[in-house]
Design brief:
Alpha-Beta Plaits; two-stranded antiparallel sheet; 4-stranded antiparallel beta sheet; alpha+beta; globular
Length: about 100
């Protein structure tokens, strides 16, 4: 399974619309649209999970393609480390 990052989505895009677009290139397993935690509004990007072969085809076909007047950015998602809260005292050490 490959997870694709889909950026520059119009804020009106829905899970169903993105799934329909990508399903032209293979079987879509999951669509996750990212929303702002505080407002609940779409942030303009999301993730699509597909088999590796289907994801490769979709990436080639849809990167730069127009979707509701916006050129999509599609590439393989990179795993990112979750930030663990960090140091609350600004890095100053107390002895």
């Amino acid at each position: 399974m490959t997870k694709l990052y889909v950026g520059n989505l119009p804020f009106t895009a829905t899970d169903e619309a993105v799934s329909a677009l990508f399903s032209k290139h293979g079987t879509v397993e999951k669509v996750s649209m990212i929303t702002d935690r505080e407002t609940g509004r779409p942030r303009g990007f999301g993730f699509v999970e597909m088999s590796s072969a289907d994801a490769s085809r979709a990436m080639q076909a849809l990167n730069g393609a127009d979707f509701d007047g916006r050129p999509l950015r599609v590439n393989e998602a990179q795993d990112r480390e979750r930030s663990g809260g960090g140091n609350r005292n600004g890095g100053a050490r107390r002895y």
